[in-house]
Amino acid sequence: MSMATATRIPAFQLKAGLHPVNQLILQHQPLAEIEEELQRRLQQAPDLFHLAPVVLQLPDSADQIWVEGLLNLLRNAKMLPIGLRGKDNLQNIAEAVGLPLLKDSRKKSKQTTQSNIPKVITGTIRSGQQVVNVEGDLIILGAVSAGAEVLATGSIHIYGSLRGRALAGIQGNEQACVSCQSLEAELIAIAGHYRISEDIAPALAKKTCVTRLTEGNLIIQSV
User: Fold this and answer.
1) Does domain 22-102 sit in CATH 3.30.70.260?
2) What CATH number matches the domain at 119-222, 1.10.3720.10, 2.160.20.70, 3.90.550.10, 3.30.230.10?
3) Is 143:158 a contact under the CB 8 Å cutoff?
4) Between residues 217 and 181, the one the model is more confident about
5) I need a surface site. Which of 6, 30, 132, 206 has the fewest CB within 10 A?
């Protein structure tokens, strides 16, 4: 064995990681209606979906032509479809369009209890920074700047201003909440349900607020 072979460095490494992905939950509507809604959302927040990976939750009645048109529409809007979700009968469509049909990994046994190991961060989370806790709640003793992102499998509590993005319950915990002392958020999400700044009532601006998920709707209340 040569020295070059013995000391060969692998060309790449494959590691699993936590990267929150947008999920687009679709009804079997005309593509023109979907495009109109998408353009409205993009006008509200042009950078939110730019080159964003997205998983498509397909309706059971989807057919291949409709899915192909949908993928073209999303790619023209600079979104990056990376997978499909839906019933097993959609497997042939997934293979035809070259995307995997993903299973919902968030579904767990009712007997399974999730650990909650809070993570405490002191100081400001600055633009471009991302802080994640995959073991429970995230507590920020400071502000979250615009362009910063905080994520947790549990709740997020910010003892300062929230100007960036806060995503709680990222593994499907619908009981999680987001609280902050001054609400100026770019985005708030719980278990994949989100609101962007344009969807938050102006009366809540810079108020101390708590956000919870109730029957699939994000409810933001001042306290």
Assistant:
1) yes
2) 2.160.20.70
3) yes
4) 181
5) 6
pLDDT at 127 over 70: yes
Q: Model-level pTM?
A: 0.63
Question: How many Cα atoms are found within 13 Å in the side-chain-facing hemisphere of 128?
Answer: 0
Picking from 2-6, 24-28, 103-107, which range would have the lowest pLDDT averaged per residue?
2-6
Write a three-state SS string for 93-156.
HHHHHCCCEECCCCCCCCCCCCCCCCEEEECCECCCCEEEECCCCEEEECCECCCCEEEECCCE
CA–CA distance, 51 with 46 (Å, rounded to integer): 11
Which band of pLDDT confidence, cut at 50, 70 and 90, is reported for residue 142? very high
Give the span between the Cα atoms of 163 and 124, in whole angstroms.
Answer: 11
Res. 108: pLDDT tops 50: no
Which residue from 133, 135, 161, 166 is spatially nearest to 148, judged by alpha carbons?
Answer: 166
Distance between CA 59 and CA 173 in Å, rounded?
23
d(CA 137, CA 120): 9
